[in-house]
Amino acid sequence: MKPVLSLFALCLLASNSALAALDIAALERAMANPERPAEDKARDASRQAPRVLDFLGLEAGMTVLDINASAGWYTEVLSYATGPNGKVYMQNRAGGRAAEAAAARAARLPNVEQWDDMGTLPANSIDFAITALNFHDFHNSNPEAAQGILGQVRAALKPGGILGVIDHEGTPGADNATLHRIAFDEAVKAIISAGYALVGSSEVLNNDDDDHSVGPFDPALGRDTDRMVLKFVKL
Question: What is the percentage of the chain residues whose pLDDT exceeds 90?
């Protein structure tokens, strides 16, 4: 059961309500273009990116950081959504998996730049950062290192900049490290302690058929886990 947002968080959400909404229909059309890889399109139904990014507050023209982007599924969607006046930094740990696919994708998308070292991004330069389906690995393996990553992201974000977190939800007290999950309250506590405020939680990626007892790659789930979608802002 996800907690009700605080009055403070609701006020922050209200203060952002005047921002222009993402054009969901236009993004869906862009994602259907024939140049986009078929294997990317196969994940669209479970990821619901237009609805997720609309909830998180992404706008055209923003400067965006895709944290630990891997091969860049979200990077490409962010590229379409931010448009020709936007910029997307595709970040991966040096030598990480899918490096060749990431490089090919960055070369194909004119508003995307690979930038592996988050610590060298200019301070207060990023409007919107996102980490999709990987915060659990950072936090579960080394909570202190995860705080360091969150700190680097915070330094790069503009005042009031957005951090979106999508992750496989786990059950409190379970072996979430082995299951590649993280409990809602644990994720929120870790991110708030790094200098962010939670301003929204969406159920757009809820899956009631996932009881959190198996990992994301279990065939029974068909890669469709119960996922939290969290919106934070830099304090």
Answer: 86
3-class secondary structure, 208: coil
**Cβ atoms of residues 141 and 177 within 8 Å:** yes
**Hey, where are the domains in the chain?**
7-234
Q: How many residues does the chain have?
A: 235
**Dist CA 226 CA 152 (whole Å):** 28
Residue type, 9: A
pLDDT the model gives residue 196: 98
In the chain, the DSSP E strands lie at: 63-67, 87-90, 112-114, 126-132, 157-170, 182-183, 196-202, 227-234
Kindly report, residue by residue over 61-84, the tens digit of the pLDDT: 999 999 999 999 999 999 999 999
222: left (phi over 0), alpha (psi -120 to 50) or beta: left
Q: Which is nearest to 31 in space by CA: 72, 76, 65, 66?
A: 76
The reported pLDDT for the residue numbered 91 is 96
User: Is the entire prediction scored with pTM above 0.85?
Assistant: yes
* CATH, domain range 7-234: 3.40.50.150
